[in-house]
Structures are given as C-alpha cells and as structure tokens.
C-alpha cells in the first residue's frame, strides 16, 4: 500500500484524486494539506504543510505556485518523494525544484495525461522536419475561467519540447499587441483562451506555405490528470533522489 499526502486536497484536482483513491486498493491518502479547510475528508487535513507529521511514501501536489517553496523545503527535509503538478512556477522556483531533486525524488509534469506526453514526443519529429522547411509554429491553449496562470504549463512544456528538438534557438511570444512588426521565423507564438468549464485544449500549429498541420489534444475530464498523478506517485514511492518525468512512468 502506497501512503499518500495530498497537497491541495480541497481543490478541484485534490477532490478528484480523493474520490479516485477510494477505489484503488494499492494507495491510501493518509493526510491532506489545504489552506481552505471547509470540506470534510476521511483523512486528517492540515492548513499548512509544516504542521503535517504523518508518515507517507509520496506526496501529490495540485495547489498554487505560491505554496511550492514551502512544499519543496518540507519534501527535502523529510526525503519525501513528490509529484509536482502545480503550474505557473517562476524561474527561481524551477531552480529550487532542481535543488530539491538532489535530496529526494521529484517528478514535475505540467500535464499528467498519456496523450500530451505522447504529443511532446511526436512534436519533436514534426518540428525537425517542418521548421527547416519554413513552417511557423504557434500554440493555442484553452482552459476554464478559474485558471490563474497563463499560458498553461502544458503550452510551455509543448513549446519546450519543440524548441529542444530545434537546438533551443526559438524564443516565445506571448503578446503581439505591443509591437507592430511581422513575426520572426524563430519564434513560437503562445496564446491563451479562458472561459467556462473547458478542462484543457492544446493545439500546436505548424503553418507553412500553402499547407498547415495541426496537432490537438483535448482533455474531457480532470480524472485524466488524476489517473496520471496517482500512477506517478506509485512509481515514485521508494525511488532514490533525482529528477523524474512522466516518460519514466508511461511506457510508450
Ligand atoms: N499537471 C497537471 O496535469 C495539472 C492538471 C490540472 C491542474 N494542474 C495545476 O494544478 C494546480 C491546481 O489546480 P486545481 O484546478 O486543483 O486548482 P484549485 O484552485 O481548485 O485547487 C488548489 C487548492 O490548493 C489550495 N492551496 C492554495 N495555496 C495553498 C497552500 N499554501 N497550502 C495548501 N493548499 C493551498 C487551495 O486552497 C485549493 O484548494 C494549478 O496550478 C493547475 O494549473 C496541473
Ligand atoms: O486546469 C488546469 O489548471 C490545468 N492546468 C495544467 C496546465 O497549466 O497545463 C494542465 C491542464 C489543466
């Protein structure tokens, strides 16, 4: 049995995971952490990570970027493997993720779904063929009206995946309204749409002369991300310190 701490347990993802884990005989949530304590769960809930002294094998985090520094310090100190799913982390926080991974197992992924992780792999091949042929690359993402970070972590991860395949020479453009000039050939445009209850859509567009190729992933339910996060926690429990990602968990 893998014992989990659910960080952000009373948020949307935390509650989807809470329900999912009840049906899974291989995992158990032994404690939750959330600064909002107005929901009753069948495990103890602490309003700050530092107050939780419950023994666990792994921690899943779906919270808020502002909570991540304290969380990383906790996981480092306890040598607790952490599945970090919160998006919108700053450059400084990403460095702290690397530091934490020297002392405990850290799996950070902006998107826990099979489809997006496969898409990242496929995009590398597409980019290597299409970019030298002059195709422009644009990413459009759509999410629900409660999302606080933009662009999505997934959109940035998709752009990084493409850029890695192109020797990292592309820059990212998030806003075209400030300058009146045509796009540079070595840029990836990233646009964010927010509205209603859209769970998550990502389109990567390669636009060339007289032809356009589009790759699209649509998430229809948050259960998709929850399944990936629980699988990641099972994988990470007992692993040595280091950086892991979803390609370690998902066998393509
Ligand atoms: N990696 C993925 O596949 C994936 C999928 C969905 C969402 N996300 C990301 O996960 C995060 C959470 O998403 P959500 O839809 O569940 O959001 P949400 O706002 O519904 O839930 C976040 C929860 O975290 C709690 N929280 C905030 N600050 C806290 C703190 N300091 N300590 C403890 N708890 C704190 C909030 O009270 C809230 O209950 C976002 O960053 C989102 O982008 C990632
Ligand atoms: O609902 C969210 O918030 C999501 N966030 C992730 C992101 O920023 O990429 C993954 C999709 C859902």
From TrEMBL:
Main subcellular location of this protein, as a coarse class: cytoplasm
Protein's pathway: Amino-acid biosynthesis; L-lysine biosynthesis via DAP pathway; (S)-tetrahydrodipicolinate from L-aspartate: step 4/4
Residues that coordinate or bind (S)-2,3,4,5-tetrahydrodipicolinate: 144, 153-154
Amino-acid positions noted as binding NADP(+) in the UniProt annotation, renumbered to this chain: 35
Active site: 143 (proton donor/acceptor), 147 (proton donor)
Ranges where the Dihydrodipicolinate reductase C-terminal domain occurs: 115-250
Entry-linked NCBIfam families: dapB
Stated role: Catalyzes the conversion of 4-hydroxy-tetrahydrodipicolinate (HTPA) to tetrahydrodipicolinate.
HAMAP family: DapB
Protein name: 4-hydroxy-tetrahydrodipicolinate reductase
Organism: Claveliimonas bilis
